[in-house]
Write the structure tokens for this entry.
Amino acid sequence: MEQYLIDEYGVVEDKKWLTKPSDIESYFSEDAYDYFDCGQGYYEDEATLICKIANKFYHVTINAEITSSKQEYGDRLYRVESISSVKFREIDKPLPKEKTLVNYSLMLTEDQKRSLEHFISEYKIKQVK
């Protein structure tokens, strides 16, 4: 699989467990909790992603049942209780996203510089020299 599909779209490919389209529903019904962002005071109950099986791509929508518990202080703590539905449809192979060259001049502290460099690395932003 081309690297841009992973870097730009986060395409999921599991050659061992995702071998045919009929595997999608069971695969994401059992192992989709990591695709949801839940925590204290916030939650997502729908996640979308792209998965690849053989040479075909599928847009997958996963819905979750969310539960929460009251905290001693602050907002409720939310978590995924179960996966309520998994829907998918075949799509064309995603094309590389268009990129724009941007230049910035910044005045940063050392902490800000480290944070910015971490962000650039985490999001695989390419630096042009």
